[in-house]
Write a structure and sequence with these properties.
3-stranded antiparallel β-sheet; 2 domains; 12 strands
């Protein structure tokens, strides 16, 4: 089935991660022989890291005293950093998708921690941590697996707790007040125009203090999972071991693009427009339904749409793939007759409009 060329998007990639990299930023990467292949402890690379840290502080309007900490390994590694370096005894987790569940599993498996408190929702619904005797509360701002978005806010009833927010697919694409959490952590391969392999954490003074307190009480912390080492290195604008300099350059370019065009509001306005186009279309279509039924918790960066049983997702995906439209598969473990569209900051809303036109053309013929 050949979709007319005039209907096709300029860029047919709508993945939920890794996501699109802005073409101008990618093109510029090939001109940076001045810094590629340079020691990560040399001034040019430390200046690059400092610039990225400064731009994250500006993009998220981080309060005074908050620090941008970074390390190697991605957000998955940061779960282990948190287990070793931020949880004192017990954590509480809101689980409403695969990634929140994985962090809770890491905390549950640590032999030096107590069994975590877990409040789990059905797929497509939201669950925040329950009030309990804990020292860390954690949940994701956006679940890439289900397309559910959660508020970032402090919850009454907890005392002396640290708030950890997994923002991997939300950071740079969903509005946030980072003062409402203590650790806003993410890897950069979604809205932030980078590749995997790095984690960033915007940390409150309480989080910095907690890491130092925990380090004093742990018998042993692996160097790569030691938050204090990451903090100390980040203050020097470097990482414990060599980072991907190309990745840092990509992130720098994306942040410059965002800030030059209006910052977080510019980026989140784009994602809100793109996702709303899809939700409005699905609400009206006979064969498509938004998977997340409550509009208040629908993600503006990960749109999950159920298909009528008359349309098989695999058949639709194959046709779209043959026409250059890719990475719209549902999350593997949900097992639903579903498509999932990434509407991250680098995705132009005009491409989403074109995608909808292509869906209409194909569905009519299926």
């Amino acid at each position: 089935m050949q979709i007319p060329k005039e209907l096709l998007p300029v860029d047919g990639r709508f993945g939920s991660g890794p996501a699109r990299i802005h073409p101008d930023v990618l093109a510029k990467l090939g001109t940076r022989n001045d810094i590629m292949g340079t020691s990560h402890r040399a001034k040019p690379v430390r200046d690059l890291v400092a610039h990225v840290q400064e731009m994250f502080t500006e993009l998220f309007d981080a309060p005074n005293g908050y620090q941008v900490v970074l390390g190697n390994g991605g957000a998955t590694t940061f779960w282990d950093v948190a287990v070793f370096s931020l949880i004192i005894q017990r954590s509480a987790h809101g689980v409403f998708g695969e990634f929140g569940a994985k962090f809770a599993k890491e905390a549950a498996g640590a032999p030096f921690l107590e069994e975590p408190s877990i409040n789990k929702a059905e797929n497509g619904e939201l669950a925040l941590p329950k009030r309990d005797d804990v020292d860390v509360v954690a949940w994701a701002q956006n679940e890439t697996s289900t397309g559910v978005a959660a508020p970032v806010q402090r919850i009454g009833g907890f005392e002396d707790v640290l708030y950890l927010t997994d923002a991997t697919s939300a950071a740079g694409g969903i509005p946030v007040d980072v003062s409402q959490t203590d650790v806003y952590y993410f890897s950069p391969q979604k809205n932030l125009g980078g590749d995997g392999g790095l984690w960033f954490a915007i940390c409150s003074p309480a989080a910095i203090e907690r890491a130092r307190k925990v380090q004093e009480t742990r018998e042993w912390v692996p160097a790569s999972l030691d938050m204090v080492k990451a903090i100390n290195n980040s203050e020097k604008h470097q990482t414990l071991n060599t980072p991907s300099i190309a990745n840092l350059l990509l992130i720098e370019g994306q942040l410059e693009w965002m800030l030059e065009n209006g910052g977080l509001k510019f980026a989140t306005d784009r994602t809100a427009k793109s996702s709303q186009l899809l939700y409005d279309w699905a609400e009206k279509h006979e064969l498509v339904t938004p998977f997340v039924s409550d509009p208040l918790i629908r993600s503006q960066v990960t749109v999950t749409l159920d298909l009528d049983e008359r349309i098989k997702a695999d058949d639709l995906l194959a046709i779209m793939r043959d026409n250059g439209i890719v990475d719209i598969n549902s999350y593997r473990s949900l097992g639903r007759n579903q498509i999932r569209v990434g509407t991250f900051a680098a995705v132009d809303p005009s491409d989403v409009e074109a995608l909808i036109n292509c869906f209409d053309w194909v569905l009519e013929r299926m």
